[in-house]
Amino acid sequence: MRNKFFTAIILLIFAALIFTAHICGFGQKQSEKDQTYKQLDLFADVFAYVKEDYVKEMTSKELIYGALKGMLSNLDAHSLFLDPDAYNELKIDTEGKFGGLGIEITIREGLITIITPIEDTPAWKAGLKSGDRIVKIGDEVTRGYSLMDAVKKMRGKPGTKITITILREKENKLMDFTIVRDIIKIKDIKEAKILEDGIAYIRLSEFRENTAKELQNKLKKLTSEGMLALIIDLRNNPGGLLSAAVDVAEQFIEKNKIVVSTQGRDEEKKIEFKSGFNNPLIDIPAVVMINEGSASGSEILAGCLQDYKRAIILGTKSFGKGSVQTLIPLADGSAIKLTTSIYFTPAGRMIHEKGIMPDILVEKMEIKKNEEVKDDPNLAGEIFDKLEDENAEHKKEEGYRQDNQILAAIDVLKAVLIYKNNEK
């Protein structure tokens, strides 16, 4: 009796879905409908047994929510069912201020994986890196965790500590990090300045609502200061808003050019995002820097400028997060986040799980002071004394000289500028 009752409810729900599908033009063949009804009948049987006989009493809402979470998480790493609390958590992200560790995560090969730590956050300062696999949060192993499970576990009251265990594959070892949670404030443009010889440097840490407008203002200021060439640093930029990435890209290419396209299951529903901005800086030589922490919007910008040969891409291969998630609110305050399409560059290259390969491969070098000077202890003492005596502001301004990738970008742009001058 109970099975028939639950079956009737679920079949009524399905009938409503079929009706909606017909309205939208997605009607199934009768044989497919019959098969679906059979599967729903099976679901209703299991639902009834669990509701009636499970050792712990469960509400219908808990069981339905659990089933929906399983359905969505089984699709891919980024599709999710969000209960009302989780949906509200997601809304906090878009405001650019929240309590936590400061990392962007995804799921790869069944493991919670760090896309990138956000610069100047607790995770960044602790030394977490792109590609680190989070295998344990506190005392709980993360096997079977969804993204929202991990987010909920890592967030907490600012000032409180949490220990996470990561697997760093390049070093083939487990590492514990005890991190103090903090309010995470995201600043989309971290730096904008002239480095040397008219070569300007802009670091974009994320693509947010006002990024393009702020960038435009920074570019105007740099132009007034004598900018001749530009380095756009997208390293460890996890992406952000698609519209913001498009608005940034259009400042470097001609009007009415494809910036990126999205393609879903229906090939006829390809969507192209085109530039709509006529920028006077369209001919300025540029280098875009990427690494394994560059994802989504960063890959859109880098791929676009690479396809149009508008900029030289330098660094290491990007992360490869090029799928589009559509957020669909539901009537009870919950929502689903569903992967509906994937990104393609203007030349038709797929970004998802492939990433963007740089034109010039330059690995990041970490200079270890002890290794550099270990053969001459007297020299070491002199160097360290000199470093300690330097003015702090001066060290900050000259800090780029310790970054081999920035130095490589400067050398490339110097060569381009020499070539351009010789052509005149």
Could you characterize what this model shows?
By secondary structure, the protein is an alpha+beta fold. The chain has three domains: 2-58, no CATH class; 84-185, Pdz3 Domain; 189-254 and 277-320 and 351-366 and 394-423, 2-enoyl-CoA Hydratase, Chain A, domain 1 (Alpha-Beta Complex). The protein has helices spanning 2-24, 30-53, 60-73, 84-94, 122-126, 147-154, 211-224, 242-249, 297-307, 369-373, 377-389, 392-397, 404-423; strands at residues 80-82, 97-100, 103-108, 111-117, 133-137, 140-141, 161-168, 173-180, 182-185, 189-196, 199-204, 229-233, 258-263, 271-274, 286-290, 312-315, 323-329, 335-344, 360-361. The strands form four sheets. Strands 3, 4, 5, 6, 7 and 8 form a six-stranded antiparallel sheet that branches. The chain has a six-stranded mixed sheet with strand order 10-11-12-15-16-19, with helices on both faces. Strands 1, 13, 14, 17 and 18 form a five-stranded antiparallel sheet that branches. Helix 8 packs parallel to helix 9 (297-307). The longest helix has 24 residues, at 30-53. The protein starts with a helix and ends with a helix. 32% of the residues are buried. One of its GO terms (biological process) is signal transduction. InterPro entries: ClpP/crotonase-like_dom_sf (IPR029045), CtpA/B_N (IPR055210), PDZ (IPR001478), PDZ_6 (IPR041489), PDZ_sf (IPR036034), Peptidase_S41A (IPR004447), Tail-specific_protease (IPR005151). One of its GO terms (molecular function) is serine-type peptidase activity. Residues 87-155 form the PDZ domain.
